[in-house]
Specification:
about 525 residues; alpha+beta; 5-stranded mixed sheet; globular
Length: about 525
């Protein structure tokens, strides 16, 4: 180890000495062809270029990086932005930077072969992983959109930076028609459904790189959410006027009715059997648990309201005024039991369970430990936890058969964790016992949910794999909390800054859009 450190120190000295005494004006003068060739030969030797970037703190002279007519300098300049990442967190360079690097970039050409096997599928094909195939009509619509964007008036945010002009984009049809307003990934991760500002919804096969069908052929109100449900390329969707429909290739659309809308798109999740979608309203003026809807896509498709729990309205008002609480559930705090007989949800103060058969409320809970609260993930937990007491129950339902006493302490998995009967007795877990010896964040629990959550610290957006923040998304793909946006991954404020993206059933593919005009699909199947 000492010999290696000594070698590293000597090598570092040579690089820093070279950069300190290098005169770019002499290096690139017309009389220095031989010197240029020597310099190019030196820095492009095996490992030299990489080592130079690991020494990013010895900044490259600005004059050197401004030279445009030399291959080696173009390479240095192209890799310069990755230098800090390479020095501080080499894994981030290989796992997060390289998969998002354009194949034509200097970064990818030099180091692309070293990238972790993370695949990024995009509609524009700007990454090396693959494309989200689109029909010719939609490809043309996106080309027109890109051309028109430069003609729109610019706006600035509160910090003086450039911001998205959502209003101008919406009112310019050539721009709106090319923007993906919402998207969904099938539970097997094979299909993606894209809803456009023109009202068109198109389904594509990611695995076989081909478009499958167009489910809405005529322009209409733009879709605000989509979920794949039971059947071949069958989806449920809602538009911005609250019209909920079932669409399927070759079948007449089924109009299920119209629901109230709010400043954010409704939160939704689909059951594992694809027979139900639960919808959480995001109209923050009313308690979410009084306006829950269950969409059934069985033989007699319908929308049924879930019975309101007997909570007081004062409790909603007090929690709504508290900026430190989650005020309405999102995908991380919403879900079904294994066979979809029950559904549960929680926010920062209240948790509720319902029966999907009767739509009756089963139990209500006070959320006293939101930082440690999760929904039953249908997999065994390897950490200690508590089962919270409900503050009310329906006596005729399974929960009341003996599991409503004082909170029990558990550390071993229930052998029947994958049954609905077990799930409804343990819908919510309190992980505070795991924190007695130190803080254990929810993102540190790889089995805490089916999908790896997105963690949003101050300056980056991380996806938690193996219980660690070790996959960093580009800033444009972070979830956004905005009432002005009409596309992208819009979410309510969560004080824990943890969000669950749409994903395949096994969690190895997930979909993110953030504030971008089209989503990407991230495939992590070879790194988890």
């Amino acid at each position: 180890m000492a010999k290696k450190d000594d070698y590293h120190r000597r090598f570092s000295y040579v690089i820093k000495y070279l950069l300190k005494h290098l005169d770019p004006s002499q290096l690139f003068s017309q009389e220095s062809i031989e010197l240029q060739n020597e310099f190019n030969s030196f820095i492009t030797q095996k490992y030299i270029l990489t080592f130079m970037h690991l020494q990013w703190c010895a900044a490259f002279p600005a004059e050197l990086l401004q030279c445009n007519n030399h291959h080696s300098i173009q390479l240095l300049r192209g890799l310069h932005e990755a230098a800090e990442t390479a020095a501080d967190a080499p894994w981030e360079l290989y796992r997060s930077k390289l998969p998002f690097a354009p194949p034509s970039s200097s970064l990818y050409k030099q180091y692309g072969h070293l990238a972790d096997p993370v695949r990024i599928f995009s509609a524009f094909g700007e990454f090396s992983g693959g494309t989200i195939p689109l029909s010719r009509d939609l490809l043309i619509a996106q080309e027109v959109m890109q051309a028109k964007l430069s003609e729109l008036p610019e706006v600035v945010n509160q910090w003086g930076g450039k911001a998205i002009n959502y209003e101008a984009e919406f009112h310019e049809p050539d721009v709106r028609n090319g923007i993906v307003t919402c998207a969904a990934l099938s539970l097997d991760g094979r299909y993606i459904a894209l809803g456009f500002g023109s009202g068109i919804i198109e389904v594509a096969d990611i695995n076989h790189q081909r478009t499958i069908c167009r489910l809405q052929h005529s322009p209409a109100n733009l879709p605000t959410w989509i979920e794949f449900v039971h059947g071949s390329c069958r989806v449920v969707t809602e538009d911005n006027d609250g019209n909920v429909m079932i669409l399927s290739d070759g079948m007449t659309p089924v109009n299920l009715g119209t629901l109230p809308t709010g400043p954010y798109p409704a939160g939704t999740t689909v059951s594992d059997n694809g027979l139900f979608v639960v919808r959480v309203p995001r109209n923050l003026d009313n308690p979410w648990y009084n306006n829950m809807m269950l969409v059934s896509v069985s033989e007699a498709p319908s929308i049924q309201p879930l019975t309101s729990p007997p909570f007081s309205s004062e409790s909603h008002l007090s929690s709504h005024c508290d900026d430190n609480h989650l005020t309405t559930p999102h995908c991380r705090t919403l879900g079904f039991s294994p066979a979809a007989r029950y559904v549960g949800a929680f926010d920062g103060t209240r948790a509720v369970t319902w029966s999907t058969e009767s739509c009756q409320c089963i139990a209500g809970y006070q959320v006293t430990n939101f930082n440690d609260r999760i929904l039953n993930p249908n997999v065994p937990l390897i950490r200690s936890y508590l089962i919270p007491d409900p503050i009310f129950t329906r006596a005729t339902l399974p929960l009341a058969e003996g599991d409503t006493g004082a909170c029990a302490h558990h550390s071993d998995a229930d052998g029947e964790h994958d049954t609905d009967e077990s799930w409804i007795k343990r819908t919510f877990y309190d992980l505070s016992p795991s924190n007695l010896l130190g803080r254990v964040g929810l993102h540190d629990l790889p089995a805490a949910m089916r999908t790896s959550p997105i963690n949003l610290p101050l300056l980056q957006s991380s996806v938690c794999l193996h219980g660690r923040n070790n996959f960093v998304l580009p800033w444009d793909y972070r979830p956004i909390d905005s009432q002005h946006a009409w596309y992208g991954h819009r979410v309510p404020y969560d004080p824990l800054k943890l969000y669950r993206p749409q994903s395949s059933r096994d969690g190895t593919r997930f979909l993110v859009q953030g504030e971008s005009r089209a989503p990407i699909v991230v495939d992590i199947s070879q790194v988890v």
